[in-house]
Amino acid sequence: MTDSLGQYLRRERDVRGMSLDEIADRTRIAVRHLERIEEGCFHELPGEVFVKGYLRSYARAVGLSPEEVLGRYANEQRAEYVQTMPVSMSTVPEERGRRFGLAVALVVFAVLATLAMSFLLRPRTQERPEQLSRRGTLETPSHARA
Description:
Helix content: 55-70%
CATH superfamily of the largest domain: lambda repressor-like DNA-binding domains
CATH class of the largest domain: Mainly Alpha
CATH topology of the largest domain: 434 Repressor (Amino-terminal Domain)
Structural class: mainly alpha
Oligomer: single chain
Distance between the termini: 113 Å
Radius of gyration: 38 Å
CATH architecture of the largest domain: Orthogonal Bundle
Number of helices: 8
Largest sheet: none
Order of helices and strands: HHHHHHHH
Number of strands: 0
Mean pLDDT: 82
């Protein structure tokens, strides 16, 4: 079983006979933050940028390669992220779901476009000439009947 990053850093510090106070003096990182690092509680630290900076400084103070320590951190975080991902219970392939959504969107667009065109192209009774509007209500003149 491999050590976590915090355990690895603590072990390397102990091998060199250094205390957390010495590391704090060299790095100007608060002892409470160094404790969180060694416990692996990175989520309790101020932020990702600070965590990486703390790890880089800690590695230099102990005599380790900062790139190796940051690489271990990235792998540990990636493994943690992958383990906590929820399993999808969907039996429909994602691509099929996207195609179905696209088809629904196209149908809705077509219906809305048809309604808009019918509204815009519909004849308006107010715009008809007066002669055409009254044609059905007036009787035909007597000279036209013959």
